[in-house]
Design brief:
Layout (H helix, E strand, L loop, with lengths): L1 E10 L2 E8 L5 E2 L2 E5 L6 H15 L7 E6 L5 H14 L3 E7 L2 H10 L4 E5 L8 E7 L8 H11 L16 E3 L3 H10 L12 E5 L8 H8 L3 E5 L18 H9 L4 E5 L6 E5 L4 E2 L1 H15 L6 E5 L4 H9 L3 E5 L3 H11 L3 E3 L5 E3 L8 H15 L3 H4 L8 E7 L5 H4 L2 H14 L3 E6 L5 E7 L3 H20 L1
Parallel strand pairs: 5-6, 5-7, 6-9, 10-11, 10-12, 15-16
Antiparallel strand pairs: 1-2, 3-4, 4-8, 7-8, 12-13, 13-14, 17-18, 19-21, 20-21
Helix pairs in contact: 1-2, 1-4, 5-6, 8-11, 14-15
């Protein structure tokens, strides 16, 4: 859970302060993630399966878990270990194979499983892997449930295993790709097709390499593909939402109307207009919020975003009578706020977009379809239809922090640097936080003065770097 440290204040559209994101022993901001055969070993995965099964074991019925994966080589190892863990505590296992994370969440709910698991490290390179968790409602787990699983992972489970006759079974499920494709298509307005649109889709050699191109073709689009030849080692390599240059080049080369870049497990998306300009998660939030507001579909007071969303998004939404509620980084924080406030649109600038009318977690592909629907209905180029505001200058720099964030949080020189930068930024925003998925501390500043933004980030990075040396 995120907790503010140091000075934090609001002044008009200004939020300044330092935020430290605390994590458990295994769980970060999105499940468990680390180097395959480093943190993420087969023995850990087996215990994760056992601990999760014991946490979700209910009643006398045959408990079931749905397990999906992306295309990393290490997914085979982790999948088999999870199967062993779950079956050892009496769970039947339904194996989906390579499927997007949002598809696993959807199928967990629709197949009435007790729990769902996705084996993926999302946008990370292939040496990393991870495990994401979904409750029977398709939502990510609350902190308390994660803590209960962590406690069990490190405890003696020998007395809690199933008897010989109560062991679980495992089987692979056919036809799940078609189920997700139909689900994604139904998120579009009835009768709307993509006939006449030329779309480049980059699947990052990841989990959506089959379903995304097929769904676009079934909707009538002309589809050019990138990143649809996974080999276990090339997921997210020079492709996908974190490396969109190949997509930009292809969009210009084929004179496409729009480009879609998913990440390795397709729970986030970045778009590219016909000129090759990026359309990030903040723009996507504005596009969908304005469209749904016009259609009378937008619920709640506005949009839920994180502390990382650009101030210009906030100003744009306020101009059309909508508010923005900011949460800590992590889509489960966004989902929790959406549920509390009754909002149905939320997300992050990295392209995690949650549309709760359709799904309980981020779904990069269905978010992209909503934007394509707007472009189609407006019958205007994506560069016009999708550019809702000009972002204010924002700069983020990373400081490698292999030993965690706690040691710098109380460093007097770091706190002083943050305090000085806070005062000078005035109407800007300053965020210092450790990543929940990588061993880095991220320093972000934004405001209307780019030189002041650069100075603020540099001064804090220098203080952090010095603190790491001591």
């Amino acid at each position: 859970m995120a907790a503010p440290i140091g000075c934090e204040r609001a002044q008009n559209d200004c939020q300044l302060g330092m935020q430290v994101q605390m994590a458990g022993k295994y769980f970060g901001t999105d499940g468990i993630r680390g180097r395959a055969n480093g943190l993420i070993t087969s023995s850990l995965a087996l215990r994760v399966g056992q601990a999760t099964g014991l946490t979700f074991r209910r009643g006398e019925h045959r408990n079931r878990v749905v397990i999906g994966k992306d295309t990393r080589l290490s997914c085979y190892m982790i999948e088999n270990a999870l199967v062993a863990g779950f079956t050892s505590v009496g769970f039947d296992v339904l194996l989906l194979g390579p499927m997007p994370t949002p598809a696993v969440a959807m199928l967990t709910r629709s197949m009435r499983a007790d729990v769902g698991m996705m084996i993926s490290a999302s946008h990370n390179a292939y040496p990393d892997n991870g495990i994401k968790f979904f409750g029977p409602d398709g939502c990510k787990l609350p902190d308390g449930t994660e803590q209960a699983i962590e406690t069990l992972i490190d405890s003696d489970l020998s007395g809690k295993l199933a008897g010989s006759a109560a062991l679980g079974r495992a089987k692979r499920i056919d036809g799940v790709h078609g189920r997700y494709i139909e689900f994604a298509k139904r998120t579009l307005p009835r009768g709307l097709a993509l006939d006449g649109m030329r779309v480049v889709v980059d699947c990052a050699n990841g989990a959506a390499y089959r379903v995304a191109p097929e769904a676009l073709r079934e909707l009538g689009a002309e589809v050019i593909t990138i990143g649809v030849e996974p080999d276990g080692l090339n997921i997210n390599r020079d492709c996908g939402s974190t490396a969109p240059q190949t997509l930009i080049t292809k969009v210009r080369e084929f004179r496409a109307d729009i480009g879609i870049a998913l990440d390795g497990d397709a729970d986030r998306v970045i778009l590219v207009d016909e000129q090759g300009q990026l359309i990030d998660g903040d723009q996507i939030l504005a596009i969908i919020a304005e469209s749904w507001q016009a259609d009378g579909r937008l619920a709640g007071p506005g949009v839920v975003a994180t502390i990382m969303s650009n101030m210009a998004l906030e100003r744009r939404l306020e101009a059309i009578g909508l508010s923005i509620v900011r949460t800590a980084v992590g889509d489960h924080h966004v989902v929790a706020a959406m549920q509390s406030l009754g909002c149905n649109v939320g997300g992050e600038p990295n392209g995690h977009i949650i549309l709760s009318d359709h799904a309980a977690t981020g779904d990069g592909f269905t978010a992209a379809l909503q934007v394509l629907a707007v472009v189609k209905r407006l019958d205007r180029p994506a560069s016009i239809a999708c550019r809702r505001f000009e972002p204010v200058p924002q700069l983020t720099r990373d400081v490698h922090c292999a030993n965690g964030a706690k040691r710098y949080a109380e460093d007097a020189r770091v706190i002083d640097a943050i305090s000085v930068a806070t005062r000078r930024l005035d109407r800007g925003r300053l965020i210092v936080r450790p990543s929940g998925t990588e061993p880095v501390i991220r320093v972000t500043a934004e405001g209307d003065d780019p030189e002041l933004i650069e100075w603020a980030v540099d001064s804090i990075v220098d203080a952090l770097t010095e603190a790491m040396r001591r």
